[in-house]
Each structure stands twice: as C-alpha cells, then as structure tokens.
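Example record

The entry below shows one chain as it appears in the dataset: sequence first, then structure tokens.
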Amino acid sequence: MEAKAQLRYSRISPRKVQIVLDQIRNKPINEARAILKYTMKAACEPLGKLLESVIANAQNNHHMDVSSLYISQCFVCPGPILKRMRPGSFGRGKRILKRSSHVTLAVKEKE
C-alpha cells in the first residue's frame, strides 16, 4: 500500500526543489524530517509541510504504521511559468521567467 500527497503550483523553481528531493529519496520518515528541518534551502519549508501531509494520509486513510514508513517515490514536474518583462539596455525589454512546480511525494511501509 502506498500513500501519496501532491503540492501543486508552488512558486519555486523545480531545479531548486530537485536538489532537496534527491537528499530525502528512499530515507525513513524520521531521517527525512531531520534533513528537511536542518537543510538551509528555500524548498525545505513547503516540502516539510508536504511530508507531514503524506504521513497524515498514510496514518488516517490507509492505517499504516508511522514508525515503519519510508519515502518510496518523490519527484517534481514543472508547473506554469509566469512571464514578466523588465527594462533592459538600449530601450530593450528583458524577459523574466517566474517558474513554478508540482511536487509528488509517496510513502510505503517496510516489509
């Protein structure tokens, strides 16, 4: 059995989120919580909330034992990009891309 949670339209670049997800992939829940708490990255705060959400889903909806959970799957997909303009040199306009991301986190019980 697998419990999932999604974070959609997060206003952080998928490239920045992927760095943190690579650190917590296939780790037990307690170790993943510690990594997210003490890593100084912008993506750690929303990923910590997503981890707590997926733990609650596993406990309440699927009746899983929290002490034996590990992160089985985590990935990020790019979301919509907000396109903005900023004045550039010689009267030109420079494009600014404000990226967003969709994050999926899944946990399983160890056999």
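Notes for this example: The mean pLDDT is 96. The longest helix spans residues 44-60.
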